[in-house]
């Protein structure tokens, strides 16, 4: 064999070894190892776990692209810049104290509802929240991170391939000494065993080139195939070997339940924020009606004063009532604008986005279930309680694993080594299968020091007891919450009925005082009572809606469809998107 052919073969071997090393380090990506493949695996796993909860359970879609290189000069600066000019460099423009403040305040409200503003109904708020809300995105990512952790653990339990390339040069200080270049390529494949230990196959290729030799240049190559296995028989043997995989699988189920529970809680939170805004709109409208009524009373009072039928101070009293009502109206508008801005932040909308909160009819029917029945449903359907219960088994498994660690070590190790035939051409991987080096050993380790393991066992037993108490406390709190929410519905219904009666009584009182031309004090007091009754009635309507939603959430019977909208149960008698529920019959 000529020297040039030997050099070419050695060069090819080095190139193949370098490529394998780069691929094993992730520097060269083989076909199929793209971000789309990872996204697909994550989405399939999340969808599988979500669908196990039911067809209405949503599965967040993972769409992240290739990771960007965030390294730049700015992030590595040890002295990031600060913008903090001195007082002399700042400017302040004084406002005109005689400006029309009343018009400016009205303009703030009008600009918030200008033409082209986004109209937000309750259903639209649900849709926007799932698309841009930061809370929702964080909950989705927690679910996806659980899936990623499981995929990592599953990968560890599959066949894994490694390729290491080592190059070395051996020479002496004497210029006449021999100089040898050695290149070693080690290709390994490992596989974990389900009940402990692992098997490994290694292909070791060693290429040696004499770069400078007093006699002649020589090239040699040798190869070894090594099959080995390490199996524990006592300690670390059994299902303890799969502990991380088991826990990651169960954690993904917990994450699916937690995410679905979050979606239901999030719907209730968004709905209650929306109902609060509607109640504030009603309060503003009541205030505007009260202001209009007081102005009309003031104008009539002025006419009576001018006709000499009333003293002059009575008109002044009504003017004070009008001014006070105007100030309250301005305050209510400002509180409403701030609440709308906060609602936009929660939905993930830019604060400068103009929105119009548009109420829509949503008459949630009240349940006929008793508090005892409500508690029974909560114990059966609450997803968070199911997580607490299943974590008891996690703690029990931890106790069993801790017991395993007290056992003595008894390990079995075996290996078989095959070399290439010495007479074969250089570069060929032709092994002599009839000649192999077999090795087997059994190692027994006496449990002379297991004090830490015994303490860990005590710790795991305490953890189990605490987890049982956590479950019992969660169970009791859920029962209390379900019973309370059911009673609260009747309480809010009773409050609403009283509020409606008070509104009617105060309305008749105001009309009667106007007919009798009562004094300004009595009229102003009656107007205040009517306004307070109307606001209390509107708050009672909101509270009753919230109570029904909280009841559904507390009993685990609230359902959210894939679009994030409230999904009515059979028998409710309405469809939030419009129409009646055919399963409810005639309905109210």
What are the defining features of this structure?
588 residues, Outer membrane efflux proteins (OEP), elongated, six-stranded antiparallel β-sheet, 11 helices, 8 strands, 2 domains, alpha+beta, two-stranded parallel sheet
Task: Summarize the structure in short.
Helix content is 54%, strand content 15%.
Report on this model:
The longest helix is centred in the last third of the chain and has 66 residues. By secondary structure, the protein is of the alpha+beta class. The strands form two sheets. A six-stranded antiparallel sheet has the order 2-3-4-5-7-8, with helices on one face. Helix 6 packs antiparallel against helix 11 and helix 9 packs antiparallel against helix 10. The N terminus and C terminus are likely disordered.
Strand and helix map with partners:
Layout: H1 3-24, H2 35-51, H3 101-112, E1 118-120, H4 122-132, H5 134-156, E2 160-170, E3 179-192, E4 198-212, E5 219-232, H6 243-306, H7 312-347, E6 355-357, H8 371-381, H9 383-404, E7 409-420, E8 431-445, H10 451-516, H11 520-555
Parallel strand pairs: 1-6
Antiparallel strand pairs: 2-3, 3-4, 4-5, 5-7, 7-8
> How would you describe the shape?
elongated
Classified by CATH, the class of the largest domain is Mainly Alpha
Spatial order of the strands forming the largest sheet: 2-3-4-5-7-8
Cα-based radius of gyration, to the nearest Å:
39 Å
Number of DSSP helical runs: 11
Order of helices and strands: HHHEHHEEEEHHEHHEEHH
What is the CATH superfamily of the largest domain? Outer membrane efflux proteins (OEP)
CATH architecture of the largest domain: Up-down Bundle
What is the residue-averaged pLDDT? 83
């Amino acid at each position: 064999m000529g020297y040039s052919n030997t050099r070419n073969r050695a060069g090819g071997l080095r190139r193949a070894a370098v490529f394998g090393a780069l691929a094993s380090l992730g520097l060269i990506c083989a076909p199929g190892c793209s971000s789309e493949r990872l996204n697909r695996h994550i989405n399939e796993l999340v969808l599988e776990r979500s669908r196990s909860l039911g067809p209405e359970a949503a599965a967040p879609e993972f769409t992240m692209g290739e990771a960007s290189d965030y390294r730049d000069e700015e992030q590595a600066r040890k002295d990031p810049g600060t913008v903090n000019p001195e007082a002399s460099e700042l400017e302040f423009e004084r406002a005109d104290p005689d400006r029309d403040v009343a018009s400016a305040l009205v303009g703030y409200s009008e600009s918030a509802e200008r033409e082209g503003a986004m109209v937000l109904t309750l259903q639209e708020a649900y849709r926007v929240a799932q698309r841009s809300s930061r809370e929702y995105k964080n909950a989705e990512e927690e679910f996806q991170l659980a899936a990623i952790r499981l995929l990592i653990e599953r990968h560890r339990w599959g066949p894994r391939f490694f390729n290491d390339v080592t190059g070395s040069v051996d020479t002496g200080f004497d210029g006449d000494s021999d100089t040898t270049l050695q290149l070693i390529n080690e290709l390994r494949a490992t596989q974990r065993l389900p009940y402990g230990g692992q098997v490994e196959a290694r292909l070791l290729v060693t290429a040696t080139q004499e770069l400078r030799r007093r006699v002649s240049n020589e090239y040699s190559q040798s190869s070894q195939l090594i099959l080995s296995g390490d199996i524990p028989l006592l300690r670390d043997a059994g299902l303890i070997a799969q502990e991380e995989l088991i826990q990651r699988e169960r954690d993904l189920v917990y994450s699916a339940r937690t995410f679905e529970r979050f979606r239901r809680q999030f719907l209730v939170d968004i709905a209650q924020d929306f109902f609060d805004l509607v109640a504030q709109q009603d309060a503003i409208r009541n205030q505007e009606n009260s202001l209009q009524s007081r102005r009309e009373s003031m104008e009539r009072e002025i006419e009576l004063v001018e006709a000499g039928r009333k003293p002059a101070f009575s008109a002044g009293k009504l003017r004070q009532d009008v001014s006070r009502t105007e100030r309250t109206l301005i305050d209510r508008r400002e509180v409403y604008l701030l609440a709308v801005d906060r609602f936009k932040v929660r939905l993930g909308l830019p604060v400068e986005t103009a929105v119009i909160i548009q109420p829509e009819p949503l008459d949630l029917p009240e349940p006929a279930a008793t508090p005892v029945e409500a508690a029974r449903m909560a114990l059966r359907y609450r997803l968070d309680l199911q997580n607490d219960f299943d974590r008891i088994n996690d703690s029990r498994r931890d106790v069993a694993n801790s017991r395993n660690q007290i056992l003595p070590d008894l390990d079995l190790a075996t290996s078989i080594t095959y070399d290439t035939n010495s007479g074969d051409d250089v570069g060929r991987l032709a092994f002599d299968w009839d000649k192999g080096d077999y090795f087997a050993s059994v190692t027994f380790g006496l449990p002379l020091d297991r004090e830490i393991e015994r303490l860990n066992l005590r710790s795991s037993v305490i953890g189990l007891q605490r987890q049982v108490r956590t479950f019992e406390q969660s169970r009791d709190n859920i029962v209390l919450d379900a019973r309370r929410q059911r009673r609260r519905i009747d309480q809010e219904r009773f409050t609403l009925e009283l509020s409606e009666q008070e509104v009617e009584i105060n309305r008749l009182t105001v009309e009667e005082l106007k007919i009798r031309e009562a004094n300004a004090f009595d009229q102003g007091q009656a107007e205040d009572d009517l306004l307070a009754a109307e606001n209390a009635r509107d708050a009672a309507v909101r509270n009753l809606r919230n109570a029904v939603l909280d009841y559904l959430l507390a009993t685990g019977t609230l359902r959210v469809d894939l679009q994030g909208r409230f999904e009515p149960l059979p028998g409710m008698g309405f469809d939030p998107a419009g129409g009646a529920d055919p399963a409810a019959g005639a309905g109210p």
